[in-house]
Design a protein that fits this description.
This protein is mostly beta strands. Among the domains are: 215 residues, Immunoglobulin-like, CATH 2.60.40.420; 196 residues, Sandwich (Immunoglobulin-like), CATH 2.60.40.420. It has seven helices and 44 strands. Strand 8 and strand 9 form a beta hairpin. The longest helix is centred in the middle third of the chain and has 6 residues.
């Protein structure tokens, strides 16, 4: 449940154009409401490099009426030459082509590229972190960058390469916010800021869960090495400072990354590329924000915002908030933008159809998307091309509809879809797509009837919409509203391409992006206990890890029903009895993340640093849904809803198999964890869900999800819930992948 205990949004706009977008508000110059959709601006690599300066800053909102004073937090982005004096200037002022808008530009990369970013933090002091009063450092708005979904190293600087890779263990503080020397330092060199005058909680040398390994003034230099065999697809650049991550992303800090092009996902040879017609592509970034009665931005997201007013039914771009009992006025509106545009018009006129890249860049919102025919009210099937930046394999003719969960892990409602002549494999088509925060889906859109058959259409209307959805039981269930996101018109005089062939670079097997060895840039030691035992050693035969999402356990053994955390243990499967049991002494009970005290999970690479794979069984103990996300990897769903004693389907080394047993699957980097049915009792709701002990005793019904989890990149990174207010509240854990030797 997000509403009262987890999320506090910064006083900043997520969607620049939304504040006066509703028809009940006066129009202003520059307003973007129900106008033709425009593609976001883009920066593209050249000669294997893309060199950017990105400044996180607050800017005036040009779409707000004069009487409403507010700002938006944006990634101001410009391209500079690292060899020039301009590279060291901590600004994009005066640089041609600079982009400064929420959701940011598209960063177009190719496999094998180097993405170099000089990242500058110019965010203002923020005193509205009500959830984080125990840590004054957060009032100074530290931030960093995470390349979500990219298969790149979590490097930290060395003498030979003094830049950061994709690590969250570094923070940049704006030096302009420094007020006095309070005894804390930037890496023992420069002073950290003092607390604002209205904050009385003392700043301590150790700030527990919100400390990071490296703390820097103003600037972080990043270099992301995109592997030559990296899959083509869509990824996200967003902040990841533990504590205010949700706030900063909710305020608008995110950008879309695209690796490769659609040709990489369709064609395997030059002849295909030569014959292929140009295909229109749209990048649809989904995000949301809330406004008060006067159009002012609200600083705390309320998922009950529209529930009490009864406006959980379709609305064009927004829903209307409940009435404020004190003033008798409406709270305002909850806007849902598409690439910074409110309820845009999309004209599908290319006879072949279009590719849509959907990216959920909301910090917390879940979207249940469909393309609904206005005439029939029925959802229109679309072809699924990729999930989380990885093209999916088409489904064999023998695949049954019952395998839908194993194919998309509840992300899709699969339907039949006309495949066209000469195509021996079924398409993967859906009429509903569920996207939790950070999910990406690529779809092929052409006019289809409810039966999946394509046909010409002139002036046929459809609506891209998200349906109402509640995330859990009782007060833990967040009600996400139904919103019409875009107004779509089909003007296709004929349809010649009912489908597209999907191809992808391998993640597994020979030359697979996750199975080919990588020479680590430095040694990452394994953890050992007092006796010298390797705590990162490979799991034993028929062993797998179980990860718990739930309420933290307090020192007295009771749970904290308002808290969130993660736990884990090792499970041993017995093939003779077909049962599994916890390995004694391996339980790390559910705890909120604390970098100083939480014991990391540790895995060691294979001999000569070859990639390794484990089976993870993720168990949600909570009465609300969560969203599992792993940094630096992609995983494949092995099974859903297995018995708690069920043996993993897959326990051997990485292969290029499309199937586990008889089940189809695909790779992804986030997966929805349904609320635990056993948590829906008065006693369990009162304690924040089930406990690990109840699962051990078979007294709590849960829905475990088994994953094949490969590890290739040595270093320290994290896995967490990607409902970002949950992550900020402690639902995260550190993982170390150690080198060998």
């Amino acid at each position: 449940m997000v509403t009262t205990r987890r999320i506090h949004c910064i006083a900043a706009a997520l969607c620049l154009p939304v504040l006066l977008g509703a028809s009940t508000m006066p129009a202003v110059a520059g307003q973007r409401y129900h106008t033709e959709f425009e593609e976001p601006p883009a920066f593209s690599s050249a000669h294997g490099k893309l060199n950017l300066t990105i400044v996180a800053k607050a800017v005036p909102n040009p779409y707000v009426a004069d009487q409403v004073k507010t700002t938006a937090w944006v990634y101001e982005t410009c391209e500079k030459d690292p060899g020039s004096a301009a590279w060291n200037v901590q600004s994009c002022d005066g640089v041609p082509g600079t982009v400064a808008k929420n959701t940011g530009p598209i960063l177009n990369l190719k496999p094998g590229d180097l993405l170099k970013i000089r990242f500058v933090n110019k965010l203002p002091i923020e005193t509205d972190f009500a959830n984080f009063a125990s840590n004054n450092l957060l009032y100074y708005n530290p931030t960093n960058l995470h390349a979500h979904g990219l298969l790149v190293e979590p490097r930290t600087p060395t003498a030979r390469r003094n830049t950061y890779g994709d690590t969250i263990y570094v923070l940049a503080f704006p030096s302009a916010n420094v007020a006095s020397n309070n005894g804390l330092y930037f890496n023992n060199v420069n002073p950290l800021p003092a607390a604002p005058g209205n904050v009385t909680v003392p700043i301590l040398p150790s700030q527990g869960p919100h400390q990071h390994a490296d703390v820097l003034p103003d600037v972080i230099d990043y270099e992301f090495d995109v592997p030559a065999n990296h899959p083509s697809g869509i990824f996200i650049l967003h902040p990841h400072p533990h504590g205010p991550t949700s706030n900063q992303m909710q305020a608008g800090l995110s950008s879309m990354i695209e690796v490769g092009g659609y040709q990489d996902r369709i064609c395997a040879d030059w002849l295909c590329l030569f014959k292929m017609p140009k295909i229109p592509v749209r990048h649809l970034a989904l995000n949301d924000t809330q406004t008060g009665a006067g159009g002012e931005l609200l600083t705390e997201i309320d998922t009950q915002f529209c529930a009490k007013s009864g406006s959980l039914i379709d609305n064009n771009g927004y829903c209307t908030g409940d009435t404020d009992p004190k003033t008798g006025k409406s709270k305002g509106k909850w806007f849902f933008a598409v690439s910074s545009q409110i309820y845009p018009k999309i004209d599908v006129s290319n006879p072949h159809g279009e590719l849509w890249y959907l990216s959920n860049q909301s910090a917390n919102a879940t979207y249940t998307l469909s393309l609904t025919d206005k005439a029939t009210g029925k959802p229109m099937p679309v072809q699924i091309v990729s999930v989380d930046g990885v093209s999916i394999n088409t489904v064999s003719q023998e695949t049954l509809a019952s395998d839908v969960l194993r194919l998309g892990a509840s992300k899709f409602h699969l339907v039949n879809c006309a495949k066209g002549s000469g195509f021996s494999r079924k398409l993967v088509c859906a009429d509903s797509i569920t996207m939790m925060s950070s999910a990406r889906v690529e779809i092929w859109v052409t006019h289809r009837g409810a039966d999946g058959k394509v046909g010409p259409a002139i002036g046929t209307g459809a609506t891209l919409k998200t349906s109402a959805w509640t995330s859990g039981y009782g007060d833990y269930g967040d009600p996400w509203p139904a919103i019409n996101l875009a107004d779509v018109t089909f003007n296709q005089p004929y349809t010649t391409r009912p489908h597209i062939q999907v191809r992808s670079k391998r993640l597994y097997g020979p030359n697979g992006a996750l199975s080919t060895p990588l020479t680590p840039q430095y040694r990452v030691p394994a953890f050992t206990d007092a006796s010298g035992k390797n705590l990162c050693a490979a799991l034993g035969r028929d062993q797998y890890r179980r990860i718990y999402y739930g309420a933290p356990v307090k020192p007295d053994g009771a749970t904290d029903p308002k808290g969130l955390g993660l736990g884990w243990e090792i499970m041993q499967y017995n093939p003779k009895t077909d049962t599994s049991a916890p390995v004694p002494g391996t339980l790390h009970n559910v705890q909120s993340f604390d970098l100083d005290t939480t014991e990391p999970l540790c895995v060691q690479l294979g001999q000569d640093n070859r990639p390794v794979a484990e089976v993870w069984e993720v168990v949600n103990l909570s009465p609300e849904a969560h969203n599992f996300h792993m940094h630096q990897s992609k995983f494949r769903v092995v099974d859903i809803g297995v018995r708690s004693s069920r043996s993993p389907y897959y326990t051997s080394a990485l292969t290029d198999r499309e199937e586990f047993g008889q089940f189809q699957t695909t790779s992804m980097d986030n997966v929805a964890l349904p609320a635990a049915p056993g948590a829906n009792t008065a006693a369990n709701l009162a304690q924040g869900g089930c406990t690990v002990a109840q699962v051990h005793d078979g007294k709590c019904l849960v829905t475990p999800i088994q994953l094949e989890m490969p590890f290739k990149f040595a270093g320290d990174f994290v896995y967490h819930c990607h409902i970002l207010s949950h992550e900020d509240a402690g639902m995260m854990n550190k993982i170390r992948v150690a080198t060998n030797p």
